[in-house]
Amino acid sequence: MTTPAALALLLALAVIAGVTALRLAPGVEAPETVHIAAGPQDYRPAGEFRQGTRMVDAPMERVEAPALEVMKFHVSEAEYARCVADRGCPPLPVTGRPGMPQTNINHADATAYAAWLSARTGATWRLPTDAEWLRAAGERGFDDGFAEDANGADPSRRWIANYLREVELRGEADLALHPQGHFGVNDRGVADIAGNVWEWTETCFQNGTLTPDGTAIATRADYCGVRSVQGKHRAFVIDFIRDARVGGCAAGVPPDYLGFRLVRDAG
Amino acid sequence: MFTRRAALMGAALVAASPYLITSASAEEVMDTSGAAPVDLSSLPRRKVKLLAPPFVHEHEQVATTGPAIIEFEMKIIEKEMQVDEDAWIQAMTFNGSVPGPMMVVHEGDYVELTLFNPPENMMQHNIDFHAATGALGGGSLTLVNPGEKAVLRFKATRPGVFVYHCAPGGPMIPWHVVSGMSGAIMVLPRDGLKDHLGKPVSYDRIYHIGENDFYLPRGPDGDYMRFADAGEGYSDMLEVMNRLIPSHVVFNGRVGALTGTGALVAEQGETVLFVHSQANRDSRPHLIGGHGDLVWESGKFNNLPERDLETWFIRGGSAGAALYTFLQPGVYAYVNHNLIEAVNLGATAHVIVGGDWNNDLMEQVVAPVEYDVLHEGRTALP
């Protein structure tokens, strides 16, 4: 017996089944990414480097960097909430406003989200390295080398130069949290990079020494309880900190907000 | 004109009335017109324009003339001010800044202040000078309604740094103070400051670090509440105030006001006088990497200064002064050494000091480097 009513019922059931299937599906739509082509990169490693006892700039290294797929936007509150709902990520404070980046993120939260997103999308997502972030930052990235004076024998010069540079880079910062897209895209097409949300990287803080001529790194050691966090300036933040505005060092300029974006590995 | 602001204020005053009645006898507004007149017409007069802190108007450290009448003007401004990135206060201010501007006179001078309460304000205000004698520090002679002004003259008889604050009666007193209405005055000895041996000392720069404790309420969403005017926020702030735990402890009115582009500056070899005022709550200034060479902890120059202090105590409701000569260049942090208040609640200032590093005073002998765990470090423990 096939009546229009039965057909309608079947159709309705099919729709409900379809909706349910969608809701239960393990798949999560992959976030929008920006492709950055392979190419050369001039990069100063992140950390503190010394020549003898003098603290100096890390040497500039030229590397051939592979292509990079990086999220166009910061991970949003809505995206992060799906991971929380799925019990993949710890719940965190949110603004509740649409399109806002998830902040109050520490390193473990970010890597938990990356693991969850990888499992749900079948691709490999991870935090960028400090070098990868700088590539994604394009013209908004910066070289953290100093002028000669700050590489000299007087440690106070470097200290003051660093303080003044952080103040200048941060500028008259707009300290309100804004929705995604507020800070626009850079020349690579990456949105909001080096706005007022600093981003976790997977790069550990390192202590290193340079060769006597200062052109190469002689020794280096990673200290992974502290990670490079990138934004208007590079900051080193202890991995469990979610709000670096307080809890920074006594005499520095801390990041404003802590958030993140991920990169997708090829393959 | 009956505005919404006036209506709100009416509600606040009603809520406050039991206190006003119980303490009315001490807060009666008085006048001095019946007392014997004093003739000061022979004294010279000088007008001084006040600067917003941390800066202090130009002044002589050693007086080159006899006593004078020093005329100051202050306008009371009620306005919303930002305390932190996510926090605002409906502030009440002396001359538009939190803290109010610092005045400097010499012992024996007469301070003559004209206090303006502009008509756009909502509340009564006054000023209580801890440096002054009688009439609740001038508070009873200066209670001005919106649209009124008053002129107070007092003789600066005691040398030292002193707090002034608004004290308009009852529960309005602490509320006005923790809404920003405090500042400092320095009464210098006519022959200037002296060290512990009585030898003259002077300073190249002076900074006024005014510390404020704020009690900002949070709404149901966890965000700091923002109000249309002070009256609207009164009851919520009162609830936080009465728990005595400040939401913010700041220098110069807001978190970070004296860091970054607002950082203080000095040069190696320069002597700086830091005047620290706190009208409501105890504090313990400390200069990280420096000292107080000479410290008038209680702020009164007839007492010998203490020497070489690491941290000094500022009693709530007082100001203190610390003299320090910077010996080493670098970035210094001037903090309230309750470090929770310094780092988490905001009480940090920075001083950028230029100069040449002195390895005799301090040297990094070995930069941080990994050590041989098997062979090194075994002799350290007992």
Q: What assembly state would you assign to the polypeptide chains in this entry?
A: heterodimer
Provide mean pLDDT of chain B, rounded. Answer: 92
Which segments of chain B are poorly predicted (pLDDT under 50) over 5 or more consecutive residues?
Answer: 1-26
Record field, number of beta strands of chain B: 21
Task: Count the beta strands of chain A.
Answer: 12
Helix content percent band of chain A:
25-40%
Largest sheet of chain A: 6 strands, mixed
Number of domain modules of chain B: 2
Shape of chain B: globular
Q: How is the CATH topology of chain A named?
A: paralog of FGE (formylglycine-generating enzyme)
Largest interface: A-B, 31 and 33 residues
Order of helices and strands of chain B: HHEEEEEEEEHEEEEHEEEEEEEEHE
Number of helices of chain B: 5
Query: What low-confidence regions of chain A span 5 or more consecutive residues with pLDDT below 50?
Result: 6-25
> Which class of secondary structure composition applies to the elements of chain B?
mainly beta
CATH topology of the largest domain in chain B: Immunoglobulin-like
Task: Name a few traits of the molecule.
heterodimer, A: paralog of FGE (formylglycine-generating enzyme), six-stranded mixed β-sheet, four-stranded antiparallel β-sheet, 5 helices, 12 strands, B: 382 residues, mainly beta, Immunoglobulin-like, 21 strands, 13% helix, globular, copper (chain B), copper ion binding (chain B), Cu-oxidase-like_N (chain B)
